[in-house]
Amino acid sequence: MKDLVSIITPCYNSAEFIEETIQSVLNQTYENWEWLITDDLSKDHTVDIIRKYNDPRIKLHVLEKNGGAGNARNNSLERASGRYIAFLDSDDFWYPEYLETMTDYMKENNAELVYCNYSRCNEQLQPVLKDFLADKVVTFSNLLKTCRLAPVSTMYDTKRVGKFLFPVKSKREDHVMWLNLLKVIPEGMPINKTLAKYRMRENSVSRKKKNIIKDQYLVYKDFMGFSTVKSLYYTANWAMNGFLKYSKIFN
Questions:
Q1: How confident is the prediction along the chain (251 residues), in pLDDT tens digits per residue?
Q2: DSSP 90-105
Q3: How open is the CA angle 124-130-131, to the nearest 5 degrees?
Q4: Is pTM, for the whole model, over 0.85?
Q5: Are 65 and 94 in contact (CB under 8 A)?
Q6: Cβ atoms of 163 and 177 closer than 8 Å
Q7: Which residues of 12-32 are buried (b: 16+ CB within 10 A; e: fewer)?
Q8: Could you say which DSSP state residue 168 is in?
Q9: Coil, helix or strand at residue 224
Q10: Which of 33, 85, 122, 234 is 20 to 30 A removed from 224 (C-alpha atoms)?
């Protein structure tokens, strides 16, 4: 039997997009998965939509208090029992072969972490930027300068590395978690194939680069324990790479 994949999803006021996300999981060719959705006390009808789907693999938990995406992801991670951990935010989308391709690659290449290309789309899931390419091996060193790993396109093996939780006091919790993981394993392997769609919403915190430079600085200063000078150096690298990553819009 194929190994169980635990899909980790935080959601908050996602009623507009959650059905497309759910359908992308139900359409997976790899069927041995559990989906741990933690709702962060949504104020819309997100929870009602999720509860319409009568699939025992979908395991919804509604928090009693809003605590942010990192806290919601941790809640799902603590309940996860799968060998492989995959992340899917409540407004993103996987192609049907996502889970099968990722798990097959990990087994065939003895990989502990893999990531793939993903399409960068608007709210209607139409591409607005060139696909982000998984064309480099990821290490702790190069991840300091730019975060090549996105939840929608990354999977790791808990049998090999254990579980990694997200820091709840950082607005850059994804980057901190990946860095902590890459301290333990030597590298993450790329799959140069587009298997996911990342929805770039207008109100997304991750798109407001000028507002999160301080938060990124704290990734290095507080969470990595770097000196002020070293933290400023990596923050500058991150800012420059972030500009290049999101500035090349299709004409």
A1: 899 999 999 999 999 999 999 999 999 999 999 999 999 999 999 999 999 999 999 999 999 999 999 999 999 999 999 999 999 999 999 999 999 999 999 999 999 999 999 999 999 999 999 999 999 999 999 999 999 999 999 999 999 999 999 999 899 999 999 999 999 999 999 999 999 999 997 665 444 556 789 999 999 999 999 999 999 999 999 999 887 766 554 33
A2: TT-EE-TTHHHHHHHH
A3: 85
A4: yes
A5: no
A6: no
A7: bbbbebbeebbebbeebebeb
A8: T
A9: coil
A10: 85
Between CA 36 and CA 191 the distance in angstroms is: 25
Yes or no: say if 9 and 22 are a contact pair by the CB < 8 Å rule. Answer: no
Q: Return the residue matching tokens 């929805």.
A: 199
**Sequence spans of domains, the chain:** 5-208
Superfamily of domain 5-208: Spore Coat Polysaccharide Biosynthesis Protein SpsA; Chain A (3.90.550.10)
Q: Which H helix or E strand runs over 161?
A: helix 158-161
